[in-house]
Structure formats: C-alpha cells, structure tokens
C-alpha cells in the first residue's frame, strides 16, 4: 500500500487485490464515521521499532466488530442514528400539527426528531443521515399532493431500504393520501414500516386529547424501532 501525504490530502494506493478490498472497507468505515458524526481515533502509540501496528477505533462503538469485505461496512458497523426526519406537506396546518405531536412521541423514546416541510428539502442529501423517517401528506382530491410525489422521487434516491418508517395524513372524508404514502415507503423503498399502517386522522380530532395521543403513540412506535 502506497500512502502519500501532501498538505491536507492523504492518498492510499493499494498494490494488490487484498489491499484493494481492505481499502474499500476502510473507505466505507470513514464515510460512515462522517455520516453519523463519529470520530476515528488512534489507540495507544505507533512506534514502528517497537510494534509495527497502527490501531484506530470508532469512538463510542463497542469493540470486536467483524467486518468482511463482502458486505459494505455501512451495513455491518453503522448503528442507526437516533434521529428521525418527519417530513410533511401541509396547506392549512393540520398535517403539520400532526407532525409536531408525532415529534413529541419520537422524543419520548430518547431519539431526536426533526420536522420539515418537504418544500425545505432540496436534495437527497437533505434526506440522508437519519435513523428513521415519517412522511405526512393531507388528502386533496382523493390523492396525495404533487409536492409529496416529487418529494418521494427525491427520497427514493436517498436509499432508505430497511430504515424504520411511518406515514401520516389529515383528511375530512376519504383519506387516501396516508395509506398511499405508507405503501410507497413499504413496497417501493422497502422500509421497515411500523406495523400499525398509516396514521390517518380526520382533521377535527387532531387537536383533541385522542388525536394528540394517537400522534404521540405513532411517533413512539417509530422511535422505539431505533432503540431495538
Ligand atoms: C380542495 C380540497 C380538496 C380536498 N379533497 C379531499 C379528499 O379528496 N378527501 C379527503 O378526505 N379530504 C379532502 N380534503 C380535506 C383535507 O384533506 C383536510 O382539510 C386536511 O386536514 C388538510 O390538511 P392540511 O391542513 O395539512 O393541508 C380536501 C380539502 C380541500 C380544500
């Protein structure tokens, strides 16, 4: 392995297939450290005359993780960040209110909850880096909104496969959007969805004790998936 260091640039050039495979694992590990705000820290000392071994550990991670070159390191080593993105569309504020109550439920489990309107999410990079995802959209004209459809195409690029998820919706009479968003997350994104289906609430009950509790419980059930 050739290693060169020039000011702020460090380059590794593998010299055989094994080194290439190991460098790929190291690369994925460092990318995951950045993604999940972890530090790769040196352990002990590196004095080649004494022992020609340089060791690093991921701060805060339990030891003895086996990493094989067949599976991307991101799948084996990265714990889910205890942070949930709650992204919603809301024209008159009802679905957004649900998002706030759901966020309270997520926070009860000790996870962080970030509530955003989909209009504030500009690229798939804004979607990455969370441990769980809950998307909400009101029903208009027996459909989800065009803005939610556009957002789901963007979220598709973030690769949410097997991440915990949930969906919610406010409506008055037919309520198609919640189950539609839920289905996309479950079948197109292959996410690990809460077993309860979408949280679909008539707008009149959102701000009642019953509505608030239903939202909080839903948030808790997604937050608990991060604690598993
Ligand atoms: C033009 C219009 C169309 C609507 N279409 C439906 C519908 O097809 N089915 C339904 O259940 N609710 C429908 N609603 C009711 C909304 O889903 C409901 O008011 C919801 O709470 C709005 O959420 P928001 O405040 O987050 O925008 C419609 C409302 C309007 C104004």
UniProtKB/TrEMBL annotation:
Instruction: Give the signal sequence positions.
Output: none
Q: Which residues form a coiled coil?
A: none
* Flavodoxin-like domain ranges (all copies): 84-228
User: What InterPro entries does the database record attribute to this sequence?
Assistant: Flavodoxin/NO_synth (IPR008254), Flavoprotein-like_sf (IPR029039)
- What is a single molecular function from GO for this protein? FMN binding
Gene3D superfamilies linked to this entry? 3.40.50.360
By what name is this protein known? Nitric oxide synthase
Give the species this sequence originates from: Desulfonema ishimotonii
């Amino acid at each position: 392995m050739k290693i060169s260091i020039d000011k702020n640039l460090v380059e590794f050039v593998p010299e055989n297939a094994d080194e290439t495979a190991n460098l790929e694992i190291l690369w994925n590990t460092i990318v995951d450290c950045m993604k999940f705000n972890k530090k790769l820290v040196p352990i002990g000392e590196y004095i080649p005359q004494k022992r020609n071994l340089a060791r690093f550990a991921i701060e805060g991670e339990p030891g003895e993780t086996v990493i094989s070159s067949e599976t991307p390191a991101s799948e084996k080593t990265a714990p889910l960040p205890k942070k949930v993105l709650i992204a919603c569309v809301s024209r008159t504020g009802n679905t957004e209110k649900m998002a706030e109550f759901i966020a309270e439920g997520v926070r009860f489990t000790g996870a962080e909850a970030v509530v955003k309107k989909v209009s504030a999410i500009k690229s798939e990079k804004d979607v990455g880096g969370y441990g769980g995802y809950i998307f909400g959209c009101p029903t208009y004209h027996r459909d989800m909104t065009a803005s939610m459809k556009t957002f789901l195409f963007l979220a598709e690029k973030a690769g949410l496969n097997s991440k915990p998820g949930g969906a919610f919706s406010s409506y008055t009479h037919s309520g198609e959007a919640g189950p539609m968003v839920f289905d996309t997350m479950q079948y197109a994104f292959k996410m690990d969805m809460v077993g309860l289906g979408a949280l679909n609430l008539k707008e009149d009950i959102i701000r009642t004790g019953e509505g608030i509790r239903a939202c909080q419980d839903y948030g808790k059930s997604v937050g608990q998936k991060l604690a598993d």
